[in-house]
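Appendix B, record 7
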Amino acid sequence: MKLVAVIVAGGRSARMGREKAFEPIGGVTILDRIISRLAPQAAKIVINANGAAERFRSTGLPVVGDLRPDAATPLAGLHTALHLAKAEAFEAVLTVPSDAPFLPADLAIRLASAGRAAAIAASAGQSHYLTGLWSTALLPGVARALDEPRIPRLQDWAAQCGAVAVAWPTEPYDPFFNVNTPRELAEAQRIAAEFMP
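Structure tokens (predicted):
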């Protein structure tokens, strides 16, 4: 399957107080850790972010803003990712958030093995809706959802389109651990020091 990976960096990082994607873990930023995990899994990697694209210049990756910035929802990031994928003749898009430094190396292949138009990652009984593989055939449905008077949450739209959850083990650590606060950053640094020397 030909797929493009899109790192969705749309959050305000309010609880961290600064843009969390650039926080270092073991001397490597969260964003760079994500890029290194995705590189073997996708034909292309793109960052989806609004605001000044220059802040991502060091990655060397293309940066695309939301096509529907008025929506202010992760669904807008998925819409942008699917639009990009379809325009560039990819079959599917792998979306991941910009605050998950330990993504699994088999993320794309295991989500694809579900054989569905949409598959999302899960761990410890929790679904990670922004970490998913989405067929470009879903683009019209996402566009319609963004035009609704009350835009559905990403998890609600995922249910509507029949997304299946694919579970990963959480030992020795949760591969979808995400960093939102200074305390979580410290925990991520502990995980990296113990399991990724």
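Remarks on this record: Helices lie at 30-38, 74-87, 107-112, 139-146, 154-160, 182-195. The radius of gyration is 16 Å.
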